Amino acid sequence: MPPEQPLAAQLAIFMQELTDTIARTPDKADRERLLAQQQEVAAKRQAVIAQGVAQHVAEYQAATKAVNDSIKALQATKADIAKVAKAIETVATVVSAIAKLASAVV
Amino acid sequence: MRRDGLGLVAGLSLTILVSGCTSTLGLTASQKAAIGEFSRATAAIGETTQGELTEMRARMVQTNEQLFIIRGSASQLSPDAPLDGALSVNTIAVVVAAATALQGYGEMLVALVEDTQAGQLQSAAGKFVTSLNKVPNVNLSAGASDAIGAVIVFAGERYIEAKKAHALKVIVPETRPAIDRICDTLASDFDWQSNGLAAALDTQNQLLQSAASSAVRDASGSTDGAAVVARSVTLPALQYSIQSRLRRDEVQKRVQSSVLAIKKANAALADALANDRWSLEDVKAAAGAAGELKPAIKELSEQASGLLDRVKILTPFPIMR
């Protein structure tokens, strides 16, 4: 996805890739971890994509980069599900970045 | 065949520049026919959009209900709280009003170019204004209000062809900002990658699909009673979430494209009427494409359940990609 895509669009793609990765993941513990992470992102999604969130702030840019990186990591699990551990790490980075952005815009 | 109409309206402006002009006393038969088709398509899309909004709210409630059944408190939902989330009755009512205004606008234009009863013209104009007033941050210009007010008054008169043509030439350009805004609002609300209603619904649906697919996998390896019970709950939930995803990609995306096509065609029509230069052959094409939205959605709705019946649900992943 081009980096200039707004965070709302990137998050939508991210959520879909995460859903598909969960469906592919055989290990129950990994799936539970991803489910919890997806829930965390969903809970803060509306706050960080609301109109008026300044795109130039550092937290927005960090969140956008984290989401973009994680999308790539999630897509990589299509070819090799063993890469899910790495994907989980990137999703954790997204959760953290989104939480920071949500705090910054409140 | 492309049904979103966007491609078909692309050449509209050029065509308008190329040909004919309208009489100040009335409209030619071909001009009436072209505007009539555009207007009917606009009205049909407005009506279809209202129905889809109702469907989206119902899906949000059912999605959250099933998510709570599968995940319990981990879903961050509560049985004591409303399950409609961002698609509350009040929120939906505003967007339905926007869609109703679009429908009324289309019906009003149809009434202005065709031989309609006075009551129909008054009713359509009234529907447009009443609905528009319910949409925040969308206002009619003084010129538009005056022109529509005059329509409601003269609708009962005889021999009003020239007045209808004059009203059309004032109303379409003057209401363009309001129609633009309505179309933008609707397009955003039907874009699952934006921050409107479709996006809110899709987020919850992603959570449901994730939870259901994981739960189905957990319950798929056993024949004991608990596993059977688990599958009986999670399998329909997974089917439902996949159906919602199909509906997002087919119906909601088509509504979004059609609304944007209407906006573009209306802008071209407004420009042509304001400058007395127009020929609307391409409006006919655009209107025809946009008009296919309604039967297309009906067809999809009828086929959706049949499609899911054929889904190999234990290997649902191919249809996700």
Task: Chart the SSEs and their pairings.
The complex is a heterodimer of chains A (106) and B (321).
Chain A: H1 7-24, H2 28-49, H3 58-79, H4 84-105
Chain B: H1 6-9, H2 12-18, H3 29-71, H4 89-113, H5 118-132, H6 142-154, H7 161-189, H8 197-219, H9 225-274, H10 281-291, H11 293-309, H12 317-320
Give keywords.
heterodimer; A: 106 residues; mainly alpha; 4 helices; B: 321 residues; 75% helix; elongated; disordered C terminus
N/C terminus separation of chain B? 22 Å
Poorly predicted parts of chain B: 1-25, 310-321
* Biggest β-sheet strands, sense, barrel of chain B: none
Number of strands of chain B: 0
Total count of strands of chain A: 0
Number of helices of chain B: 12
Strand content of chain B: under 5%
State the shape of chain A.
elongated
Oligomer, anyone? Answer: heterodimer
Average predicted confidence as pLDDT of chain A: 91
Distance N to C terminus of chain A: 28 Å
Proportion of residues in helical segments of chain A: over 70%
Describe this structure in a few short sentences.
Chain A has helices spanning 7-24, 28-49, 58-79, 84-105.
Structural account:
The complex is a heterodimer of chains A (106) and B (321). Chain A is built from 4 helices and no strands. Chain A is mainly alpha-helical. Chain A has one domain. Chain B has 321 residues and is mostly helical. Chain B has one domain. Helices cover 75% and strands 0% of the residues of chain B. In chain B, helix 3 packs parallel to helix 10 (281-291) and helix 7 packs antiparallel against helix 9. The longest helix of chain B has 50 residues, at 225-274. Classes of the chains: A mainly alpha (106), B mainly alpha (321). At the A-B interface, helix 1 and helix 2 of A face helix 8 of B.
